Amino acid sequence: MNIPELPVDADTTDQESVYARLRHAIMVGTIEPGTNLTMRGLADAMGLSPTPVREAVRRLSSENAIEILPNRRMAIPEMTLGRFEELVALRITLEVHAAERSLPYLSDHVIEKLQQLDDEMDIALSEENLDKLTILNLKFHRMLYSVNPNQVSVPAIESVWLQLGPFQRQVVKRVKEFYKIDRHKEILTALRARDVAALMNATESDIREGSSRSGRRVLTENLPTT
Amino acid sequence: MNIPELPVDADTTDQESVYARLRHAIMVGTIEPGTNLTMRGLADAMGLSPTPVREAVRRLSSENAIEILPNRRMAIPEMTLGRFEELVALRITLEVHAAERSLPYLSDHVIEKLQQLDDEMDIALSEENLDKLTILNLKFHRMLYSVNPNQVSVPAIESVWLQLGPFQRQVVKRVKEFYKIDRHKEILTALRARDVAALMNATESDIREGSSRSGRRVLTENLPTT
DNA sequence: AGTTCACAAATGATATCACATATGCTAGAT
DNA sequence: ATCTAGCATATGTGATATCATTTGTGAACT
pLDDT higher for A161 or A128? Predict the structure, then answer.
């Protein structure tokens, strides 16, 4: 198992950096569904003792990114069509909610930064750098929802991202087939117009087209439907 | 700090039981907002070494039930009016979503069990057993949302309950002032009629009246508004 | 060849220890 | 009396050791 390192500032705790590394790896789909993990294996891979690894894994298990089996072993959960569709539906509900509640706090400056992120995404797409595309996409959404100063939904949203993550590589490969219209441009237009209804619509379409269609295709080809 | 014990079956791990105990205590509001916690303090209180306590605490921190401060100390987060209103709004969005997606899987047998829970709540209310009332209420909601076999929203919902928990005792004391109409009865009626719109309406009203109004009152009386 | 049992290796869970940092208290200076 | 410096204590973090349980392997048996 090879978990890429991540830049960390000096004061971060080992537990924290393990958490960040695993989280990142899961979210971009580095680790495939069904992968079995061991505390000592991860600890060895990262050159640490099992202690901080256990703490990081526990956190991820509470976010439903890692599954603790009855035999006390750990695994990345398998994806099924039913679970996938529930996750996408939840993602839409949560992100439409978060977008709606961010709009009143939105400044032109943030819109500008969102625009820049979208530009970077265009570059990543043309370079076929799919992991980077994924990260930038999530960063775009996170930034929008975080402008609400009392925001409490981002952690829930990130948990859904984590659960969809292992499946991400398979989905994103097909994204060009289904993602004909650039919904981020629509989101940006709605933001500039401060148009709530348009924003909610564009957000839903973005998520649905970015994951649902291609994801379902992959799943009906490969996986059990239960 | 006195964290009540909880019944556990033989095979549960120490870490797991600490997690369950803390979680329960936070959810019914045993621990007040702003309370400072220490690993060793909790460990001593439960007769365990710090190791399993750390893991349980880490999990709860990832569910935003416990806050890790920059000095690496831990505390139960303070509540503010802004955060409170965001939490209630998120609770409504999530639970309306979950209720809607459970309805298609609902059996008469489950409706019967929900009815029984509601009866128990009436008794708890007449006995003024407020902690029990809280637990039964959450159990009622959890049972409904869990009939969806592919359900993925309950963990997110429980995280919101956890974040509202420390505030629960103050709110529930006032519940009689605002909770004039029994919205659980309305939910049950909607379930029996398989009426989605009525279900969603009743769910929203139940949550809003059960927490929002009395909660806001408590907060505007006591706390900073930021 | 396939099955079963026994033993070895791997793994998870927890306590303990060592270390670094943060906190709190006391004594001295102003 | 108040502030500050310094030291003792408390606390968080992580490595290690130990034990119980699970997994895996190989030999004996059918």
Answer: A161
Residues in chain A whose Cβ is within 8 Å of chain B:
13, 15, 51, 54-56, 58-64, 72, 80, 82-83, 85-87, 89-90, 93-94, 97, 101, 148-153, 155-156, 159-160, 163
Q: What is the CA radius of gyration of chain A?
A: 18
pLDDT of A140 strictly over 60: yes
CB of A42 within 7 Å of some strand C atom: no
Q: What is the ipTM of this complex?
A: 0.92
User: pTM above the 0.95 mark?
Assistant: no
Q: Do residue A150 and residue B82 have CB atoms under 8 angstroms apart?
A: yes
**Which chain B residue's Cα is nearest to A158?**
B156
Q: Where in chain A is the domain with CATH 1.10.10.10?
A: 14-75
| Per-residue model confidence (pLDDT) at position B126 | 87
**Closest to B203 (Cα-Cα) out of B122, B144, B133:** B144
Best of B78, B100, B150 to disrupt the A interface (most A CBs within 10 Å) is B150
pLDDT > 80? residue B171: no
> Rounded to an integer, what distance in angstroms lies between the CA atom of residue B112 and that of residue B73?
46
Is B152 close to A86, i.e. CB distance below 8 A?
A: yes
CB proximity list for B204: less than 8 A, separation 6 or greater: B92, B96
Fold of A14-75: Arc Repressor Mutant, subunit A (1.10.10)
Dihedral sign for Cα B119, B122, B127, B131, please.
positive
The CATH topology of domain A81-222 is Four Helix Bundle (Hemerythrin (Met), subunit A) (1.20.120)
